[in-house]
Here is the input.
Amino acid sequence: MGELPRPVFTDRRSTSIQVHKHLRDLILDSTLPPGTVLKQAELARQFGTSRAPLREAFRMLQEEGLIEADLNQAGRVRALDANELDQLYGARIALESLGVRVTTGRLTTAEATHAQQLLDTLEQLRADNDLARWGEVHRQFHATCMSRIADPLLRTVNSFAERSERYLRLYQVWHPQSFAGAHQEHEAILAAVRGADSDKAARLMAGHLAHTALAILRDLSPDTSHHAACEAVAMVTGVKVSTQAELDR
Here is the structure.
């Protein structure tokens, strides 16, 4: 595995959280590619910490679907899985479309202002090529556009968004031109949520998420049909789609 960059520990009381974030970032930016074996003892030595934070970090990474861990305290970075992506984005399309639908017309002025500030921050982070921070702010933007949902739906939506971050990062790397289109879609979603047309807000969110899903599905598994994302779009919009071109009509 070689020597990895060490995390910067700002608070030893939250070492496991910082180790988790550090390993998560290394997986998302492909420093630790699929198939990489992760050994707690080796990582503890490299990171200058005990094995206890590694055990907790492994548990969190496993819950996010980023690694597979066994009883021997070793882990392996999971392979990319087109079926997982399809299912994740199918669920996100259904749930986040509901989220913006129930929030449309109910954003406070402060929430709307905050959402616009997040969009401005996303543009600056894109210019700085800070994809890790971009992902965090991106999740905050989506959450703000769904401000009227609460637990347990909120926890579920956040979990699916975090779990699909790996595929979103690949989409950005493989399709760098996607940023401009994504920004326009974000602006349109925010405008719809600030308005009164909940159907439009839901359609825009469904299309926005499906753009990412269908592009990466085509990259990962071009000869395989995947249905969850397309069926979720049909459920939200009433229109059957199976390709990117159909989605863009």
In short: The radius of gyration is 19 Å. Residues 185 and 208 are 6 Å apart (CA to CA).
